[in-house]
Design goal:
Layout lengths: L1 H36 L21
């Protein structure tokens, strides 16, 4: 009977390890998908579009 409990304990530990690894993989995949779906920040506009008159030289 003790052997059965030991085998059951080992089986449960193995299952916990596999589930833990899969959980980490799923979390990594979700983070990667979220980073793809998050729109990038819009570029900053540091310039003016249109005609700029020449500067006067004095």
């Amino acid at each position: 009977m003790l052997i059965d409990h030991e085998a059951l304990r080992l089986a449960i530990e193995g299952l916990e390890r596999r589930v833990g690894k899969n959980e980490r993989d799923i979390q990594l995949a979700i983070k990667a998908i979220q980073s793809i779906l998050t729109p990038p920040d819009p570029p900053k506009k540091n310039f003016r579009i249109g005609f700029c008159p020449p500067e006067k030289k004095e």
